[in-house]
Write a structure and sequence with these properties.
The complex is a heterodimer of chains A (about 290) and B (about 280). Chain A is built from 15 helices and no strands. Chain A is mainly α and about 290 residues long. Chain A folds into two domains: about 40 residues; about 230 residues, MetI-like (MetI-like fold). In chain A, helix 4 crosses helix 10 and helix 5 packs across helix 7. The termini of chain A are far apart. By secondary structure, chain B is α/β, with parallel strands linked by helices. Chain B has a domain of about 180 residues: 3-Layer(aba) Sandwich (Rossmann fold), CATH 3.40.50. Helices cover about 30% and strands about 25% of the residues of chain B. In chain B, the strands form two sheets. In chain B, strands 6-7-8-3-9-10 form a six-stranded mixed β-sheet, sandwiched between helices. In chain B, strands 2-1-4-5 form a four-stranded antiparallel β-sheet, covered by helices on one side. Classes of the chains: A mainly alpha (about 290), B alpha/beta (about 280). At the A-B interface, helix 8, helix 9 and helix 15 of A face helix 2, strand 6 and helix 6 of B.
Chain lengths: ~290, ~280
Amino acid sequence: MKSLKRRQIHDRFMVSLLVVSTIAVLLPLIIIISHVLIEGFSALNVEFFTEELGSPSRAIQGRPTGLVHTILGTIVVDFLALAIAVPIGIGAGMMLSEYPEHMLNPTLRIMNDTLNGMPAILKGLFAFVLIVKPMGTFSGLAGAVALSFVMLPIIARATESALLSIPWTIREAGLALGLPRWRVVLSTVMPAAKTGLVTGILLAFARAAGEAAPLLFTSFGNNYLPDRWYGFILNPVDTLPQRLYSLAISPYEQWHSMGWAAAIVLLLFVIITFVIARFLTRNKMQQA
Amino acid sequence: METKVKPFRIKASENNIPKPINDLSKMDIRLETKNLTVKYGSVYGVRDVSIPFRNKTVTALIGPSGCGKTTYLRALNRMHDLTREAKVEGAVLLENKNIYDADINPVIIRRKVGMVFQKPTPFPTMSIYDNVVAGLKLVGIRNKGILDEVCEKALNQAALFDEVKDRLKSPAVSLSGGQQQRLSIARALAVEPEVLLMDEPTSSLDPQATLRIEELIHTLKKDITIIIITHNMQQAARVSDNTAFFYVGDLIEVGETKSLFTNPKKKQTEDYITGRFG
């Protein structure tokens, strides 16, 4: 009985170790979110969502100032990046999971993992050479291309695992009906993997939405709203992570609190994306 | 799956291929394998198997687990194309044309040689109706009249129509396991194959559903050629006209079901069907 007692104590000790690590994981998250909320809340007002930033004097003199151009810029750049990365990423993911015997498959896998591990700033540098240099200007497009390099490998890998989670027999059943292989993947495997696909795309989106490094010398930043709508694509454009950085390193007290507010908006931006996605992927067929 | 590899014997000649008891060669042969060998890398799945399948008959493939039945069956509609390690040698003649010839499109072959799997395989996001007509709809047949007709016919053939006629639009995954398996059969029948391959179609079903599928096989035999794998000896005896016994990748014996079960020519066959091993 003594040894049983000891084992029970041992067990409790091990479980408490797990609890400690759980808290260690959760605590930073809670501290970060609460700190951001406390610091940034005071700077959040209607003007924050309706006015452009302008020069520092606006904030210092208490004139209306905000980050509407940053929020709009982030939406344009992020969704443009998504539009570039989703078709290519899903295509690559399909190649990885559905054509394991293809001779390009092993190469693609290595390349994709390398791209995933590559520092984001290098992707920005590449987009700079690819888009900014020929265009002669920083632009939202360049930023989107840089971010799409961040999204691509994540989407490809997530697509692969989402498709692989669908039993192989589904594909064979499709093929046995005399359907071409691409048709089987597109009409039976992809719909079944929908939830996994959307989740993967969102993970990539959330990850890229938080990247500042690749945007610093591609979309560059801008204190003002563009004159015309396509200015978001063809001219230098502001984005939340990069603006957050600029505000934080600025010497103005007022801009610092605006930076915290920008952090709140960035957090919300990511959270709302997740909520929408959860809502969209509620599939009645799969619940049955 | 553990496969014991026996040293490869001398290349089979016409002489040492087991001859079917009733001389099948003179009859209406729909599908035939000649010296069919499937290798996974250097491991043999099946070796040198030659079986003729007569039109509108049922042939049962029996043998212990890992003996190559499934490997053999999957070679008959080029399912091994998807497995990089698998290599197929010899010939599978469908109406006297080798389906492994370079100019043959496997998609066309699989349209003629359908397949039903061990576990039900409904397409999870599709309704019952869409599942049944998938083979037609997904190649561009959109005429609702035709699709409705095919759907009803196939479901009737699979003895499922009465159970689902009021809920054709509900998800296929809402059906029970036995119904899902009959749905899989209906889907395979909807494209009107000439040959139907069934890989242990009743292994995951209860006796009631098994019975229905066996009845179904009897009915289908009027129109198509069926090759069925089964671990259930009684089932083989009940549903098949001919039986082939496989052991460790070799075809040991093939012939009329009745004589194979009552009067096996080979010792191994006798040991297996009397339950001494396997």
